[in-house]
Amino acid sequence: MSLSVFAAAWFLPFVLPICVYICYTDMKGMRIPNHAVVALFVVYLIVGAIVLPLDAYLWRYLHLVVVLVAGIALNAGGAMGAGDAKFAAAAAPFIHLADLRFLMALFAANLLAAFVSHRLAKRTPLRQLAPDWHSWEAGSRFPMGLALGGTLAIYLGLGLFYGQSTPTP
């Protein structure tokens, strides 16, 4: 991984609670709240300025713009929810560009695991722990925040163990 251990160690304590909250709110109400997306952006705005070299910090805002434009297009085509697009854009600056292929594989695996887990829980007594969640009755729709939030959290967690020991842009 090209993400530095230093950056992962700083980002993870702030990002993990937001990711857990995103997973919860998307399963409960099939919505990713704007205040959670803004909180994620603010974490990058402040912590990123401290832990990343200035040039890398500024260039990673381009990640946000590119993912936001792609997310808007996917949302317009009905392939992605607006909250999912906004969350993905706010999460993009945390990702080292050199880790993109790894991140895509991690997302694919996490998406499959989240989908299967959600669908299994929906059909078992586990559902009774949260009987009022909208995601149980959403038909073919899936709370993508479960996979998106999980992927960002896992990526940063893996960065603690497998990241670069010296900071890289």
TrEMBL record:
Alphabetically ordered keywords of this record: Membrane, Transmembrane, Transmembrane helix
User: This protein is called what?
Assistant: Type IV leader peptidase family protein
- State the species of origin: Antarctobacter heliothermus
Please give the Pfam families that the UniProt record associates with this protein. Peptidase_A24
Provide GO CC annotations from the record.
membrane
Domain (Prepilin type IV endopeptidase peptidase): residue spans on this chain: 15-116
| GO MF assignments | aspartic-type endopeptidase activity
Which InterPro entries does this entry report, sorted A to Z?
A: Prepilin_IV_endopep_pep
Say yes or no: keyword Transmembrane present.
yes
Parts of the chain that traverse the membrane: 6-24, 36-54, 60-82, 102-121, 141-163
Would the keyword Membrane be found if you checked this record's keyword annotation? yes
